[in-house]
């Protein structure tokens, strides 16, 4: 699965996801990348996110809507997208015992990344700097 | 505000050496191109479509040309997009033989009153648009590595 969230100069947030699904899935199975609120969600007044991982768990937990809702609540208390993303990924992993991952932007352009698998390549670009990583704790920076 | 973009390339359960590094490089390049697009005035909808299209064309990612096979040895793709300003959504599910499913999802969002198209209706919708179509089964034949990864056992998710 791949997923992207972007906010343009007008503050318009868009989220998108695309996937081939799980290897050996049943023919006709539709995964979370096609389900708004599960594999992706965006609200320009709050932020947006995209998810990857075990699609059925992502759909059953309405993962991305849940995250944007959490970001809305946490913004009022001054907390960042990163904390909301970690909380939501930890809760979904604990509840469904499957691996998931999310990248998110809040409406101020701050980002959040969390995943419960060994690796999830991610990349974030703002103000001429590219941040990226794949394993837990990685956050490399380079100029673009 | 400052344009900003973030992307992921899917979760991985093991480090696959050089292929993993190539995946990170490809992801970084796609994000930089998407960032350049929004910095040049493109709306975020276009930047997201463009960035995902680049990744769909890259066989390192499980999307588009790099997709894994289903139990029948076919490639069926899902894609979706949401415009956070209008709150409109467009998605396609289990679509076959389409070059860029994210583009079709964008058209569902922008040109229809619906949110999700699947099956014959999605194919009919695609046929009426300028979305590049592929010969039947070409995605399944494209990438031999997908055959190597083909798991014909029942996945946990089914």
Reconstruct the topology from this structure.
The complex is a heterodimer of chains A (144) and B (158).
Chain A: E1 2-7, E2 13-19, E3 40-43, E4 47-53, H1 55-60, H2 63-76, H3 81-96, E5 100-106, E6 111-115, E7 119-126, E8 129-135, E9 140-143
Antiparallel strand pairs in A: 1-2, 3-4, 4-5, 5-6, 7-8, 8-9
Helix pairs in contact in A: 2-3
Chain B: E1 4-8, H1 18-39, H2 44-56, E2 77-83, E3 89-95, H3 101-111, E4 116-118, H4 119-127, H5 138-142, H6 144-148
Parallel strand pairs in B: 3-4
Antiparallel strand pairs in B: 2-3
Descriptive overview:
The complex is a heterodimer of chains A (144) and B (158). Chain A contains three helices and nine strands, in the order ββββαααβββββ. Chain A is α+β, with helices and mostly antiparallel strands. In chain A, α2 packs across α3. The mean pLDDT of chain A is 94. Chain A is globular, with a radius of gyration of 14 Å. Helix content of chain A is 25%, strand content 38%. Chain B is flat, with a radius of gyration of 16 Å. The N and C termini of chain B lie far apart (43 Å). Chain B has 158 residues and is an alpha+beta fold. Chain B contains six helices and four strands. Chain B is 41% helix and 14% strand. At the A-B interface, β1, β2, β3, β4 and β5 of A face β1, α1, α2, β2 and β3 of B. β2 (13-19) of chain A pairs antiparallel with β2 of chain B.
């Amino acid at each position: 699965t791949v997923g992207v969230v972007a906010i343009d100069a007008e503050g318009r947030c868009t989220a998108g996801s695309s996937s081939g699904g799980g290897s050996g899935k049943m023919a006709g199975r539709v995964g979370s990348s096609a389900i708004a609120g599960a594999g992706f969600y965006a609200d320009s007044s709050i932020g947006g996110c995209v998810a990857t991982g075990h699609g059925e768990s992502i759909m059953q937990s309405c993962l991305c809507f849940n995250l944007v809702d959490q970001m809305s609540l946490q913004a009022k208390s001054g907390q960042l997208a990163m904390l909301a993303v970690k909380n939501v990924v930890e809760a979904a992993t604990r509840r469904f015992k499957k691996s998931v991952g999310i990248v998110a932007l809040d409406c101020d352009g701050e980002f959040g990344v969390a995943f419960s698998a060994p690796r999830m390549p991610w990349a974030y670009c703002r103000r001429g700097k590219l941040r990226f990583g794949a394993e837990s704790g990685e956050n490399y920076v380079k100029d673009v | 505000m400052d344009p900003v973009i973030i992307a992921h390339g899917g979760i991985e359960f093991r480090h696959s050496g050089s292929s993993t590094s190539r995946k990170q490089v490809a992801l970084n390049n796609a994000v930089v191109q998407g960032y350049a697009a929004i910095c040049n005035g493109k709306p975020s909808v276009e930047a997201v479509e463009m960035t995902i299209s680049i990744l769909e064309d890259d066989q390192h990612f499980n999307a588009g040309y790099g997709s894994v096979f289903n139990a029948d040895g076919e490639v069926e793709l899902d894609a979706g997009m949401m415009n956070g300003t209008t709150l409109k959504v467009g998605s396609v599910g289990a679509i076959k033989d389409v070059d860029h499913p994210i583009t079709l999802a964008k058209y569902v969002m922008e040109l229809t009153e619906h949110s999700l198209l699947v099956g014959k209706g999605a194919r009919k919708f695609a046929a009426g648009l300028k979305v590049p179509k592929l010969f039947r089964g070409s995605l399944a034949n494209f990438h031999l590595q997908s055959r190597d990864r083909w798991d014909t056992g029942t996945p946990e998710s089914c």
